[in-house]
């Protein structure tokens, strides 16, 4: 396996002239499935006292932004907060779904 620019190349072959033939490229450890570079975490928007309720529209926007950017820290924080409180089932489902899409929680099918 060859690490190259953040990607590990499996089953790659280098010809005598130095050119390589790649049959499959996979992210190297630490380079896949994480936050997009240059974006700040939505964690600051999500932190609030347990009794304080965020308006539904604002909550949806923050969770959507965290999911779109791969903000695992914010999503994991929110899932823990939802698990520790009497969360609305829909809110918990949205956060779980985002973490499933990022491959960090197993889906319903496995």
| Count of distinct structural domains | 2
Strand content: 5-15%
Structural class comes to alpha+beta
Radius of gyration: 19 Å
Separate helix tally: 4
> What portion of residues is helical?
40-55%
Shape verdict: globular
- Trace the largest sheet across and list its strands: 1-2-5
Query: Mean of residue pLDDT?
Result: 73
What is the CA-CA span between the terminal residues? 29 Å
- Uncertain ranges: 1-9
Order of helices and strands: EEEEEHHHH
Number of strands: 5
Largest sheet: 3 strands, antiparallel
What's the short version?
With 110 residues, this protein is of the alpha+beta class.
Can you walk me through this structure?
With 110 residues, this protein is an alpha+beta fold. It has two domains: 1-32, no CATH class; 43-101, no CATH class. It contains four helices and five strands, in the order E-E-E-E-E-H-H-H-H. The chain has helices at residues 43-46, 56-69, 72-84, 89-101, and strands at 2-4, 7-10, 13-14, 20-21, 24-27. The protein has a three-stranded antiparallel sheet, with no helix packed on it. A two-stranded antiparallel sheet has the order 3-4. The longest helix is centred in the middle third of the chain and has 14 residues, at 56-69. The two termini are 29 Å apart. The relative contact order is 0.12.
